[in-house]
C-alpha cells in the first residue's frame, strides 16, 4: 500500500491514540523523573470542633506556589523514584545483602519490600492464569463444538457470563460464597472435614482462590476465539488425516492445534497483558494482606486519601510496561518474522 | 480411544456434553446464585449466620411477608433511577463500539496491507500502549479536561474509551484482514476502484463477521468500564457500573448492596438478547477471519 | 428498614414540585455547583441545596465516590468547575495545600447566623470550612453476652475489652468474641490511627513532617492490636467495616469498635437483625493504658467554598449551603446522621459517637502529610499482624515507606 493511502487510512486511529495515550505517556515518563518541590511549611493555629485549638503545621500555599511557578515540573530526580524503597529498592537490597544472616533471611527481608512482594504475586498470577485459562478455554471450545447445534447459543451466553458480570459484583458475590460461612466455604469445610478452614485466613488458599477466579474470568475470552477458530479447521485436511488412520487425539494434535497456533499467539498476547495488570480481584476479595500486584500499587498510590503519589505511580506504570514488553518478547519476534515474510512477497 | 472415523463417536459426545455441563455450572452458578439472591433481602443473601438463609429466605419472609421480594429492583430502578444510568450506558456502548470499529477497520486494513516496516512498528507501539494501566492514564486526563471545559460529558468519555480501546481493536481487525486474500481488493482496483472504494465495496462486506466479533469485545469493554467512566463523567451522565459502585457504599457509609445486586442482574438482560441475536455472526465471524497472530 | 425509608423520603422530596422552590434568601443571581460524596446523609443535604434553584440561581450537584480524586483538579482551574466542595477533615488538606478554597469569615458574618462556634473550622484564624456532621468509631457491645459471661460493666479500656473477650471465650459462649475493620489499606491504618490518637502522642515530630510513631507508644498500640486479633475470627485481615457489621448482625461478635454511621441498622429492632439489635449497646471507644482519650479519631464532614470563583457565586453557594444545613435538617431527619447542627437532639444511633465527643475524643489530624502516613500504615502493618515481623520492624517499615512518599511530595528532603 502506498504511503499516502496508508497515512489516510491510519490517521483517525493514530490520532486518537496519539492524543489520549501517547501524550499522557510522555507526560508520565517526565513525571516519573521529577519529584515535587520542597513544601514550605509553617506553624499556624488551627481550631477543630474536637480538641480545641492547637498549633499545627501547614503548607504555606503561596510560597510553595511561587516555587512551583519558577519550575513547573518540580525537582529533577533522575531515576531516584525508580530506585527508592517503594520501587526497585536498590539501596535497601544492598543493605539487606550486606547485613543479613544467610540466603533465606535475605529473601525473607526482600519479600517484605512492597515492590517485590507485588511482583512475585503478579508473575505467579500471570504465568499460572494465562496458560491455564487458555487451556480451559480450548477444552470448552472443543467440547462445545460437539454438542447439538440448538444448544450452542445459550451455552455460549452462559460461557460468556464470567466476562460479562462486572468484577465489582462478581468478586463481591464470590467473596461471600467462599467466606467461611458462605455456601462454597461451607462446602469446602464439609469436603475437608475441617470446620475451622477459612480461605481468607490462609495465604496459599487465598492465592489459589485468586488464581481460580482469574481462570474463571479469563477462560471465556479464549473460548470464544478458539471456538471460532475450530469452525475454520479445513475439513479436507481432517478427512485426509482420518483416511491416513489418525485417531482422534492425533487429529487434535497434528491438525487442530497447528491450525489454532496463530490464534493462540493472539490470545496469549492479550491475556498475558491483562493478567499482568491484575487488580480487581485483589480489591474485590479484600486480599491485600496476602497478595498485592503492581497495578494494585499504582491504584494505591493514586488514591486521594493516600496523598496521590503521581511520580511513584508513573514509575510503577512504566516498570509495568517494561515487564510486559519483556514477557511479550517471544511473541513480538514471531510477529516480526511473520511480518517480514509478508513484506517479502 | 480407537474409533472408526466415519461413525460419530457417542462416548466422546457424552463426555463432551458432561464437560460442557460442568463448565456451565462453574460459569453460570455464581450468576444464578446472584439472580436468586436479588429477590431476597440483604440479611439473607449476604448472611454471615447461615448461608441456607439465602435459600429459605427467613429474613425476607419476616421483613416483607413473602419469600421473594422486588425491593432491590424497586430501590434501584424507581427510587434511584437506575434507568437513567442504563440510558447513558446504552449511548456510551453503542457509540464506542461503532466508532472503535470505524477507526479500527480503517487502521487495521492499512496495517494489514502495508508491507513497510513502519506498519510493524505501529503495531508494536499499539501493543505497548495497551500495556498501560488505565488508571494512570485517567489521572493524567483530569487537569487538561477541566481546563478545556470538556470534563464530565458523554462525548469526552466516549472518545477516551475509543482511544484506549484502539490498540486491541487494531490488532484484532488487522489479524482478520490478513486472512482475506490480497487479490480481492487488488482486482477491484484493477477494475477501476479507488483504494477506499475497494475497501468499502469489496473488503468490508466480506469482513462483517469479523467486525461483529471485534465489536462484541469493544462493547463489553465499554459496558464494563469503571476506571474511565467513574472519573470522567458527572452525575447526570453516570453510566451503570459507577452507579452500581455507588450503591455498594464506602468504608464510612453503608450503601444498599441489594440495589447493586439487582442492578447487575437486570443489566445482564440486554446482553443476553444481544448475544442471542448475534451468536451466529460471532462464531461465523471468527470463522471467516481466523485471526492470525 | 430505616435506610430504605430515608432514601425513599429523599427521593419523594426531590420529586415533589413544591419542594423544588425554597426560599434560600439568595438576593442576587448566581451559579451553585457542588461536588460531594455519594451516601444517604449527604443526599438529604444535597436535596435541600438543590431546592434553592430559582430563576436567577442555578444549582448543579455532582455526588460521586470519586470526589476526593476530582476535587483538586476541578477546583484548580479558573473559574473552578465547582463552587462548593463537600469535604471531611482528611480531604481538606489537599485543597489547603494548593490554596484552592477561600476564607469564609465575611460570608459567615453576613449569612451564617445559624452556625454554632464548633461548626467553624479555623485555620490560622480564618474560617476555612463549615462542619455539619460527625463520624468516628466507637464501641458496640452485646449486653446479653457480657452478662452471660459474668461481666457487669461495659468495658471502657482496651485491657477490659481483652479481659471480657477472654471471659466470653472461656465461658464457651463465643470462640472469637471480637471483630474490627482490619482489612489492610485504609481501614487497618484507621485502626492504628484510632488507637494511637488515644495515646495522646503526636504522629510527627512537632513542627516538622518527620514521623514519630516508632516509639514506645507505637509499640504499645501494635501489641494491643495484636492481642485483640487473638480474639478475632482468623480471617480478620479480610474483614472490613461492611463485613464486620454483618458479623455483628449474625450474632457472631460480642464486642467491636466500629463506625457510628453503621449503628443505625444494627440497633434497629425492626430491621435486619431483630435478635441482636435490642441487646446492642453503644458507648464511647475504649481508652488505652492509663490514657483518657477514647480510641476513635473523630471525623467531621463539612464544606468549603472554592477560591477561583466570582464573589457572586461564592455568596450564592454559601447561602444555598446554609439553607441545606439549616436547623430544619436536624429536626426533620434526626436519625439521618450525627449532625453538628444547632438544635440537633441525638437519637439512639448517635449515643456512642456523642459519648466519644463528650469524653474528649480527638479529631483525625488535619495535617498535609497525614494521608501519606495513613497509606504507609495500611500497607506496612500487615506483616506484623501475620507474625512475620516484630513491632519495631513494622514501625520502622512504616517510617521508611512514609519517608519515601514524603520525599517524593516534597515534605521531607
UniProtKB/TrEMBL annotation, chain A:
Parts of the chain that traverse the membrane: 7-30, 115-143, 155-178, 207-230, 251-272, 309-333
Main location, first listed in the record: membrane
Keywords from the UniProt entry: Cell membrane, Membrane, Transmembrane, Transmembrane helix, Transport
Keyword Cytoplasm attributed: no
Residue ranges annotated for the ABC transmembrane type-1 domain, each copy included: 119-331
GO BP terms, alphabetized: transmembrane transport
Record's bilayer topology term: Multi-pass membrane protein
Domain of life: Bacteria
Record InterPro entries: MetI-like (IPR000515), MetI-like_sf (IPR035906)
Cleaved signal peptide residues: none
Gene3D superfamilies in the record: MetI-like
Gene Ontology cellular component list: plasma membrane
Compartment list: Cell membrane
PANTHER family linked: BLR7065 PROTEIN (PTHR43005), SPERMIDINE_PUTRESCINE TRANSPORT SYSTEM PERMEASE PROTEIN (PTHR43005:SF1)
Similarity comment: family membership: Belongs to the binding-protein-dependent transport system permease family.
Protein name, as recorded: Carbohydrate ABC transporter membrane protein 1, CUT1 family
Source species of the chain: Pseudooceanicola antarcticus
From TrEMBL, chain B:
Positions of transmembrane segments: 12-33, 90-111, 118-142, 154-181, 202-223, 257-278
Region forming the signal peptide: none
Domain ABC transmembrane type-1 stretches: 86-276
Transmembrane in keyword set: yes
InterPro entries to which the protein is assigned, alphabetical: BP-dep_ABC_trans_perm, MetI-like, MetI-like_sf
Topology versus the membrane: Multi-pass membrane protein
Family under the similarity heading: Belongs to the binding-protein-dependent transport system permease family.
Name the UniProt record assigns to this protein: Carbohydrate ABC transporter membrane protein 2, CUT1 family
Automatic annotation (TrEMBL), chain C:
Domain of life per record: Bacteria
Keyword Transcription regulation: no
Localization annotation: Periplasm
One annotated Gene Ontology cellular component of this protein: periplasmic space
One of the Pfam families matching this protein, by short name: SBP_bac_1
Alphabetic keyword roster: Cell membrane, Lipoprotein, Membrane, Palmitate, Signal
Signal sequence bounds: 1-22
Family of this protein: Belongs to the bacterial solute-binding protein 1 family.
Protein name: Carbohydrate ABC transporter substrate-binding protein, CUT1 family
Organism this protein belongs to: Pseudooceanicola antarcticus
Amino acid at each position: 500500500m502506498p504511503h499516502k493511502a496508508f497515512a489516510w487510512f491510519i490517521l483517525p486511529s493514530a490520532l486518537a491514540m496519539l492524543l489520549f495515550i501517547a501524550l499522557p505517556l510522555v507526560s508520565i515518563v517526565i513525571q516519573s523523573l521529577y519529584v515535587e518541590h520542597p513544601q514550605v511549611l509553617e506553624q499556624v493555629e488551627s481550631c477543630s470542633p474536637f480538641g480545641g485549638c492547637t498549633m499545627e503545621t501547614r503548607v504555606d500555599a503561596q510560597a510553595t506556589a511561587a516555587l512551583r511557578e519558577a519550575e513547573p515540573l518540580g525537582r529533577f530526580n533522575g531515576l531516584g523514584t525508580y530506585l527508592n524503597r517503594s520501587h526497585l529498592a536498590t539501596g535497601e537490597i544492598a543493605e539487606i545483602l550486606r547485613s543479613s544472616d544467610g540466603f533465606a533471611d535475605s529473601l525473607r527481608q526482600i519479600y517484605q519490600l512492597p515492590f517485590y512482594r507485588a511482583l512475585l504475586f503478579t508473575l505467579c498470577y500471570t504465568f499460572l492464569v494465562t496458560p491455564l485459562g487458555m487451556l480451559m478455554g480450548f477444552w470448552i471450545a472443543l467440547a462445545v463444538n460437539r454438542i447439538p447445534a440448538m444448544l450452542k447459543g445459550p451455552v455460549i451466553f452462559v460461557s460468556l457470563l464470567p466476562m460479562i458480570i462486572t468484577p465489582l459484583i462478581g468478586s463481591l458475590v464470590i467473596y461471600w460464597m467462599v467466606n467461611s460461612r458462605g455456601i462454597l466455604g461451607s462446602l469446602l469445610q464439609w469436603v475437608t472435614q475441617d470446620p475451622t478452614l477459612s480461605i481468607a485466613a490462609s495465604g496459599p488458599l487465598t492465592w489459589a482462590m485468586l488464581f481460580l477466579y482469574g481462570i474463571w474470568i479469563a477462560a471465556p475470552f479464549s473460548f470464544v476465539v478458539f471456538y471460532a477458530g475450530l469452525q475454520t479447521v479445513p475439513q479436507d485436511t481432517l478427512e485426509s488425516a482420518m483416511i491416513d488412520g489418525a485417531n482422534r487425539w492425533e487429529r487434535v494434535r497434528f491438525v487442530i492445534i497447528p491450525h489454532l497456533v496463530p490464534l493462540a499467539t493472539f490470545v496469549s498476547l492479550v491475556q498475558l497483558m491483562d493478567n499482568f495488570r491484575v487488580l480487581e480481584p485483589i480489591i474485590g476479595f479484600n486480599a491485600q494482606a496476602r497478595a498485592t500486584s503492581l497495578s494494585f500499587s499504582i491504584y494505591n498510590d493514586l488514591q486521594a486519601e493516600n496523598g496521590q503519589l503521581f511520580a511513584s505511580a508513573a514509575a510503577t506504570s512504566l516498570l509495568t510496561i517494561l515487564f510486559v514488553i519483556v514477557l511479550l518478547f517471544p511473541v513480538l519476534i514471531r510477529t516480526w518474522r511473520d511480518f517480514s515474510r509478508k513484506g517479502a512477497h | 480411544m480407537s474409533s472408526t472415523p466415519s461413525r460419530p463417536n457417542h462416548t466422546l459426545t457424552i463426555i463432551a456434553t458432561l464437560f460442557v455441563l460442568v463448565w456451565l455450572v462453574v460459569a453460570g452458578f455464581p450468576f444464578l446464585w446472584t439472580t436468586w439472591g436479588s429477590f431476597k433481602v440483604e440479611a439473607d443473601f449476604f448472611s454471615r449466620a447461615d448461608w441456607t438463609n439465602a435459600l429459605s429466605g427467613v429474613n425476607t419472609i419476616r421483613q416483607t411477608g413473602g419469600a421473594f421480594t422486588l425491593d432491590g429492583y424497586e430501590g434501584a430502578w424507581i427510587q434511584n433511577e437506575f434507568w437513567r444510568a442504563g440510558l447513558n450506558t446504552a449511548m456510551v456502548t453503542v457509540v464506542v463500539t461503532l466508532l472503535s470499529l470505524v477507526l479500527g477497520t480503517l487502521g487495521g486494513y492499512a496495517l494489514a496491507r502495508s508491507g513497510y516496516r513502519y506498519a510493524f512498528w505501529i503495531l508494536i507501539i499499539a501493543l505497548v500502549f495497551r500495556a498501560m494501566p488505565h488508571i494512570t492514564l485517567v489521572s493524567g486526563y483530569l487537569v487538561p479536561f477541566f481546563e478545556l471545559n470538556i470534563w464530565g460529558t458523554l462525548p469526552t468519555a466516549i472518545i477516551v474509551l475509543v482511544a484506549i480501546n484502539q490498540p486491541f481493536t487494531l490488532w484484532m481487525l488487522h489479524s482478520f484482514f490478513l486472512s482475506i486474500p490480497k487479490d480481492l481488493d487488488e482486482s477491484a482496483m484493477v477494475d477501476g476502484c479507488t483504494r477506499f472504494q475497494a475497501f468499502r465495496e469489496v473488503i468490508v462486506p466480506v469482513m462483517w463477521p469479523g467486525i461483529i466479533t471485534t465489536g462484541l469485545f469493544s462493547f463489553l469493554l465499554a459496558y464494563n468500564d469503571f476506571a474511565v467512566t467513574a472519573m470522567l463523567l458527572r452525575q447526570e451522565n453516570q453510566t451503570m457500573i459507577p452507579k452500581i459502585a455507588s450503591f455498594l457504599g464506602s468504608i464510612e457509609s453503608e450503601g444498599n448492596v441489594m440495589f447493586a445486586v439487582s442492578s447487575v442482574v437486570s443489566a445482564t438482560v440486554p446482553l443476553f438478547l444481544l448475544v442471542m441475536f448475534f451468536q451466529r455472526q460471532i462464531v461465523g465471524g471468527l470463522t471467516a477471519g481466523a485471526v492470525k497472530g | 428498614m430505616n435506610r430504605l425509608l430515608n432514601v425513599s423520603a429523599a427521593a419523594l422530596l426531590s420529586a415533589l414540585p413544591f419542594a423544588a422552590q425554597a426560599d434560600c434568601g439568595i438576593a442576587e443571581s448566581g451559579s451553585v455547583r457542588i461536588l460531594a460524596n455519594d451516601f444517604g446523609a449527604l443526599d438529604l443535604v444535597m436535596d435541600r441545596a438543590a431546592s434553592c434553584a430559582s430563576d436567577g440561581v442555578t444549582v448543579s450537584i455532582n455526588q460521586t465516590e470519586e470526589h476526593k480524586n476530582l476535587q483538586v483538579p476541578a477546583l484548580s482551574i479558573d473559574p473552578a468547575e465547582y463552587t462548593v466542595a463537600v469535604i471531611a477533615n482528611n480531604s481538606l488538606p489537599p485543597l489547603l495545600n494548593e490554596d484552592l478554597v477561600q476564607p469564609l469569615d465575611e460570608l459567615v458574618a453576613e449569612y451564617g447566623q445559624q452556625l454554632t462556634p464548633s461548626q467553624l473550622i479555623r485555620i490560622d484564624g480564618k474560617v476555612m470550612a463549615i462542619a455539619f456532621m460527625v463520624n468516628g468509631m466507637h464501641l458496640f457491645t452485646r449486653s446479653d453476652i457480657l452478662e452471660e459471661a459474668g461481666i457487669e460493666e461495659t468495658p471502657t479500656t482496651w485491657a477490659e475489652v481483652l479481659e471480657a473477650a477472654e471471659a466470653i471465650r472461656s465461658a464457651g459462649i463465643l470462640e472469637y468474641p471480637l471483630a474490627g475493620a482490619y482489612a489492610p489499606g485504609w481501614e487497618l491504618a484507621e485502626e492504628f490511627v484510632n488507637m494511637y490518637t488515644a495515646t495522646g502522642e503526636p504522629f510527627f515530630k512537632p513542627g516538622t513532617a518527620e514521623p514519630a510513631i516508632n516509639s514506645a507508644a507505637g509499640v504499645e498500640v501494635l501489641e494491643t492490636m495484636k492481642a485483640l486479633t487473638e480474639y478475632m475470627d482468623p480471617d480478620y485481615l479480610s474483614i472490613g467495616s461492611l463485613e464486620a457489621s454483618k458479623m455483628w448482625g449474625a450474632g457472631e461478635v460480642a464486642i467491636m469498635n466500629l463506625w457510628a454511621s453503621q449503628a443505625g441498622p444494627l440497633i434497629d429492632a425492626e430491621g435486619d437483625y431483630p435478635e441482636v439489635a435490642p441487646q446492642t449497646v453503644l458507648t464511647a471507644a475504649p481508652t488505652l493504658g492509663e490514657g483518657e482519650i477514647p480510641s476513635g479519631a473523630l471525623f467531621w464532614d463539612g464544606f468549603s467554598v472554592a477560591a477561583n470563583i466570582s464573589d457572586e457565586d461564592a455568596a450564592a453557594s454559601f447561602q444555598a449551603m446554609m439553607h441545606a444545613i439549616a436547623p430544619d435538617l436536624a429536626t426533620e431527619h434526626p436519625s439521618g446522621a450525627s449532625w453538628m447542627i444547632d438544635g440537633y437532639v441525638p437519637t439512639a444511633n448517635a449515643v456512642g459517637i456523642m459519648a466519644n465527643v463528650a469524653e474528649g475524643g480527638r479529631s483525625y489530624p488535619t495535617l498535609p502529610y497525614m494521608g501519606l502516613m495513613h497509606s504507609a500504615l495500611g500497607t506496612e502493618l500487615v506483616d506484623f499482624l501475620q507474625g512475620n515481623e516484630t513491632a519495631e520492624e513494622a514501625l520502622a517499615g512504616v517510617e521508611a515507606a512514609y519517608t519515601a512518599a514524603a520525599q517524593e511530595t516534597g515534605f521531607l528532603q
